[in-house]
Amino acid sequence: MNVIKPTPPSTTAEEKRALLKKLLSEGTSQARSPRLRVDQPATSRSAAHEIPVEYYQFDQSAEYLNLRAQKQVADDLGIEYPFFKMIEPLKGATAIVNGRECVTYSSYNYIGMSGDPRVNRAVNDAVDRYGSSASASRMVAGERPIHKELERALADHLGTEDAIAFVTGYLTGVTTIGHLMKAGDLILHDSLIHNCSLVGAKLSGARMLSFPHNDVSALDDLLGEHRASHRRVLIVAEGVYSMDGDIADLPGMIELKHKYKTYLMVDEAHSIGVLGRSGRGIGEHFGVDPRSVDLWMGTLSKALGGCGGYIAGSGPLIDYLRHTAPGFVYSVGMPPPIAAASLEALAILRDEPSRLERLQAISSLFLERARARGLDTGLSRGTPIVPVMVRDSRRCGFLAQALYKRGINVQPIIFPAVEDHASRLRFFLTSLHTETQVTTTVDAVAQELGRILGRPTPGLD
Ligand SMILES: Cc1ncc(COP(=O)(O)O)c(C=O)c1O
To answer: Going by DSSP bridges, is the β-strand pair 233-238/295-299 parallel, antiparallel, or unpaired?
Structure first.
């Protein structure tokens, strides 16, 4: 048996500090341990006594030291750590954030379904009827009527033959792409696609190529060059992009899908229940035939007040996923009370289209007001996602902190999540925000940013 002999912990506290300092000065570039010797296989029997401590002691691993270095960045910038804040929701769009009452712009509760009394009642009824868990895979333990009702309602909402619901949106992307595509296939994805699609694509073994964000003519070129040398091709895009709030060129992609005979998948995490007159998403927004997209993917955790994801599409596709997708077959079914939440949210969406009008109006108000105050809102086009570009991580952190002190909770997106010049505050609007909250917030952003830049804001300072 190959016994790995422990090496004495040769890294002193001083060496560790020096390493951390070095990592910090390198920013987020992957931490490379000075003792990493990739030319020597770590498992080699003869070299067992030389196995570096970072290979078997996690707190010494390059990955963990890299994380610590990244966490240190907030401290170095002199700002509060911006993640894992403690939030207690209050009324409307307000919450207690780390002990302070704030208007909050960091939740995806786009049309106020989470916390809605009708949704709460549906959840409680489902708990009484089904208990809290599905307790096993639906394939083996059997269906609950509520699962089928939800899937039927999703398919009807989207105008597809069928739909399948998974336990999370993330899992939906990973298992669907990872399972459907294979070596010999090609996945062409937007450069800003969500991590779940990337991970699914890697898992699939298919070739992956990225096209510049929302650039259909670059996609056309890539298809022209590569389509013929692959078996199946899947184009993956999103409805509304979560970092910039812009809308995908769906008609352009549909045209290419037909021209090159490919599959098309659209992740509607931020467009279902958001775009379109009745919240049917980007397809309704552009008035396209629902059959022109092969895989409509979405999440239930945002506009639809629950948790989980779905794929909606043709009967044969959904039948195949239901019987073979590993993340469905080998995983527990969605908790029935959560299925009940999203089922009720779909019913409310049908009954109360005014929520969408309100969301669309408040999002436009924020954007117009921000532009009028001279703020750089990047690519945002009136969706509920509005970035305010700061283009400097330190200033962005300071700005978020200054706003927090004024009772406004907004997430700074700073290096290393984005390049320093792309750092921004990212505002998520919901139908629960009021006009007063929006105008007060935009004015506060303009004023605080002006102060940080040493430029007084006309009419405010
Ligand atoms: C575009 C996109 N796809 C998928 C997901 C994953 O969805 P969920 O958080 O519901 O698992 C997210 C989450 O934010 C997302 O933004």
So the answer is: unpaired
Residue 329: give its domain's CATH number.
3.40.640.10
pLDDT tens-digit readout, 79-138:
888 889 999 998 899 999 999 999 999 999 999 999 999 999 999 999 999 999 999 999
- CA of 193, closest atom in ligand 1: 1
336 with 214, same domain: the answer is yes
Domain that holds residue 159: 117-351
Are residues 433 and 104 in contact, defined by beta-carbon separation less than 8 angstroms?
no
The strand order across the sheet containing 385-389 reads: 385-389, 424-428, 411-413
Same domain, 166 and 314: yes
The pLDDT tens digits for 367-381 are 999 999 999 999 998
Q: Is residue 18 part of a domain?
A: no
Among candidate residues 312, 336, 351, the one where a domain is terminated = 351
Q: How many CB atoms lie within 10 A of CB 332?
A: 14
In total, how many domains does the chain have?
2
CB of 230 within 8 A of CB of 200? no
CA 163 – CA 74 distance, rounded (Å):
43
How many angstroms does the Cα of residue 247 sit away from the middle of ligand 1? 16
8-state DSSP, 118: H
The CA 181 to ligand 1 mean position distance, Å, reads 20
Q: Judge whether 171 and 301 are in contact, CB under 8 Å.
A: no
